[in-house]
Amino acid sequence: MVQRARKKRVSLQSSLKPFSWKSDSPAPREGKRRRRRPLLDHRPDSTARRTLVWIDDYEPGLVLYKAVLESLGFRVLTASRGRVGLDLLATHPADAVVVDYEMPGMDGEAVATSIRHRRPELPIIMFSGSSMLPNRVRNVVGAVCDKAGSRDELLATINRVLGTKAATVLHTPATEAEHGLRGVA
Fold first, then answer.
1. In CATH, what number is assigned to the domain containing residue 109?
2. Is 110 within the bounds of a domain?
3. C-beta separation of 129 from 147 below 8 A
4. How many CB atoms lie under 10 A from the CB of residue 38?
5. CB of 134 within 8 A of CB of 107?
6. N or C: which end of the chain has fewer CB within 10 A?
7. pLDDT at position 9, please?
8. Which residue has the higher pLDDT, 51 or 176?
9. How far apart are the C-alpha atoms of 98 and 64, rounded to whole Å?
10. If 0-12 CB within 10 Å is exposed, 13-18 middle and 19+ buried, where does residue 55 land?
11. HSE-up of 100 (CA within 13 Å, CB side)?
12. Which is it for strands 75-79 and 124-128: parallel, antiparallel or unpaired?
């Protein structure tokens, strides 16, 4: 069965003539396979294969940010508790961490301090609705982003800590409406 399928593929390939936009370009050599490239790659180069670990006790926000950032080409792993987020980091590679400051149990400061001790090179963004972050917290993280700020500011902060550029806009009202959320997550 497999041999018949291979023979059919070979006979179909041999009956097709190569196409070229240029009339003077030579045809590919017989017997040599050409590597096919995808026509379109919807992932921006700046975020290709970048993994974020997002730790926040507000689960509807986790769903929203995961959906939006994955649509921009990021891979997003989520945790609704600090300890679970640390376990994710121990078992999965990550390029950056976004952590909420105010969480029950292990708060964002404790999570960020633990990450900094284990992986000092890993960028950490403190994503908080609290305007009163102590300086000791600001000294542990690479960036602070306000939950009340725009989604574009959040994306710019993520790209800055990752050292990438992206012209993509994060704030999409359609995505927020789809998940029944509005404004601050």
1. 3.40.50.2300
2. yes
3. yes
4. 6
5. no
6. N
7. 47
8. 51
9. 14
10. buried
11. 26
12. unpaired
